[in-house]
Amino acid sequence: MPKNMFTNNSELRHLDLSDNFLIQIDFKFEHLIKLQLLDLGGNGFRVLNVDMFLQCESILQYQNGTNSISYIAGDSKLDVILHKNPMECKCDDIFITSVEWIENSGFVRDDELLPVCSLDNKAIVISKTASKKTKDYCHLIEVRRIALIVGIVSASILVVCVIIVIIWRRRLNKKNALERFVKKIKVGDKLKNLIFLSFCNEDGDYVLENIFPRMKEEVSLALECDRNLVCCGEFNFKPGVSVCIEAMRCIEESSVIIFVVSKIFCEKSWCKMEVDTANAMRKPAILLMLEKVKLEEMTPYILKLFNRYTRASWVKDQNGGHPHPPWPVIITSVLELGSSFNVENQTREEYMSEQYVADSNANDVSI
């Protein structure tokens, strides 16, 4: 509606604006000092704006002949009808102010024409108790919201704590399993060798001169063990015994298999036999690439390892070459693979025996 629509209607006594789909009062009417009825029913008011309050109070002040803005219900000559408006009971200051204004004003009809709002799916008449009901409801909503937040935060903290404990226990179990595995390897219990180094005869001279001795030395230093923990056919196959049987024995007695892969290695039937044997025994394996090999030249299991797992390579130089990544990384990987394989293939009796020995060592303290 135009802001100055009623500028020239100072004698107006009844102003019926009902059922006009109004959503707020933005026109001036405080000069209508003789106004007796302002019907705003059946519109679209959800909240009442402050400007409307002030204009109604200004009219009431003039009619009562007082400068006070405090009024007693029933003394007003001005009646305001607000029923049939879709008032929303909301937990905000504007709505609470609207409710309190309706309750405390002397010009909102205190009868069946009082406005109604929806509170928690219930119709609440905005009367003398509406403000308290609304505030109580808002307080309940706030308590529920806080309780929900506290519950979610508490549950999240609990879940995080459980995850941390699980991760810590897994790491501790992994560390303990690795320590037990290293002890078993050092004494040669069940698994006599940490590594079985598999290579073809054509690469034998280079491997035995540059790779095998360095690997033995690095493993011994890492585990602080004087015993040789690296096995290969050149030094560990028993004379006069089938090569196939000896290869199977060495692979079975070793924790991790390292294949020195070259083009010739992929072509040799004996090398393929060692690869298939390690696969059949489900031994963890690492590829040490001596040179670039085309995928179509690899055996199925070598190709599977090449595509699925990370691998090491041997970089030749004037000092005999070096592995990439360096020896400490390779040895750490070997120990972790061997430890995991040991845990997976450990019988219950072996596990309980290890736990008993570990507990005995922990309690064997001299005072």
From TrEMBL:
Keyword Signal: yes
Keyword Hydrolase tagged: no
InterPro entries assigned: LRR_dom_sf, TIR_dom, Toll_tir_struct_dom_sf
GO terms, biological process: signal transduction
Protein name listed in UniProt: TIR domain-containing protein
Cell compartments where the protein resides: Membrane
TM annotation in the entry: 146-168
Chief location bin: membrane
Pfam families to which the protein is assigned, alphabetical: TIR_2
Matches recorded under Gene3D superfamilies: Ribonuclease Inhibitor, Toll/interleukin-1 receptor homology (TIR) domain
UniProt entry keywords in alphabetical sequence: Membrane, Signal, Transmembrane, Transmembrane helix
GO molecular function, one term: signaling receptor activity
Lineage, broadest ranks: Eukaryota, Metazoa, Spiralia, Lophotrochozoa, Mollusca
Domain TIR: start-end pairs: 191-323
Bilayer topology annotation: Single-pass membrane protein
GO cellular component: plasma membrane
